[in-house]
Amino acid sequence: MTSASTPGGQRNTDRAAVPVPERIRHLALAFRESRVLLSAIELGVFTELSTNGPGTAGALGARLGVHPRGARDFFDTLVALDLLDRDEDGAYSNTEESELFLVRGKPTYQGLLEMAAQRVYPFWAQLTDALRTGQPQNDVAEAGLYPAVYGDDDKRRAFVGAMTDFSTRSGRVLAERLPWERYHTVADIGCSQGALLAELAVRHPHLTGVGFDLPPVQGLFAELTRERGVADRVTFTPGDFFTDELPPADVIVFGHVLHNWDLDTKRMLLAKAHRALPESGTVVVYEALIDDERRTNWFAMLMSLNMLLQTEGGFDFTAADCRGWLAEAGFQESWVAPLAGADQMVVATK
Fold it and tell me: What positions constitute the catalytic site (predicted)?
């Protein structure tokens, strides 16, 4: 093999040892794949195919309002990403995975992708500004996180739909991971649409639950709990955990809540939970927890950067961080267990 000179003047005799940049290039351009999927969600590609059947690039593009110039490349990119199939006649259809998770109206639909398209994706373009200033890059700065989201009907429904997606799978695992036969009542703080409580109530008919959240989500909470058949055992208590005490219960749950807030607020909420629980009561905190060494769980660290972009003081944290805050609040024992996907829970006893 012919040797070559490096920029520093040294000879490199093994070209095979020279690193290649493909992984870095892919990381740099990965936003393109994400944007194709999110545009397909916004256009309703998967729902249209499920509802009205396969179609060629021209026919499907006409049904969706996609200009002919980009239609074929767009749909073929979805094929290459294994999100659509294409038959010998050029007709596109959903894959099994897309039919299951990307069709609006199905119980397995990933509504969080709509929030990703509408709110999350645009703000990530401003990450450099957020890193330089420490300030959120969305409408929170003017209105505050939840007034900004809950003040508009469409934003509110999209947001609580995303929270339902985040909560449902972990709720099913949580329903099996605690000795629920020991408890009678559970309170979900920041309950959104009530998906977690619905999962617990369906699995454990002896349980009664209360969802605690701001008043604008009460109607959506009632809607979901009626659909799940648990409205007789799961109720909504409107309130603001900055000014109100938490509802008493045998188990208090914070699911994807603490990461929205700064350290003082995290500690305040755990102290309120300690006051609201009876002796031997239990608190559950679940999030996409950062690994204690802060080296491997890139998903959770990206979530923390998302909090930088979208909140005034929020950040994600490790299980060790959380256990320390729980001890400060007066909890005597704590332990950690995995839930669904990237979620883990920290459980502590009063």
Answer: 259 (proton acceptor)
Q: Which residues are catalytic?
A: 259
CATH architecture of 22-101: Orthogonal Bundle (1.10)
State whether CATH 3.30.1490.20 applies to domain 112-349: no
Torsion sign (Cα): 303, 297, 251, 326? negative
Residue 1's pLDDT band (boundaries 50, 70, 90)? very low
Question: For the chain, how big is the Rg over CA atoms in Å?
Answer: 24
Pair 333, 349: CB distance under 8 Å:
yes
DSSP-derived 3-state class of residue 139: coil
Q: How far is CA 54 from the centre of its chain?
A: 31
CATH 1.10.10.10 domain extents, the chain: 22-101
Which DSSP letter does residue 247 get? P
Residue 316: in which H helix or E strand, if any? Answer: none
Residue 111: partners with Cβ closer than 8 Å, 6 or more residues away: 158, 161, 162, 164, 165
User: pLDDT tens across 262-277, in order?
Assistant: 999 999 999 999 999 9
Global confidence as pTM = 0.85
Q: What are phi and psi of 348, to 5 degrees?
A: -135, 150
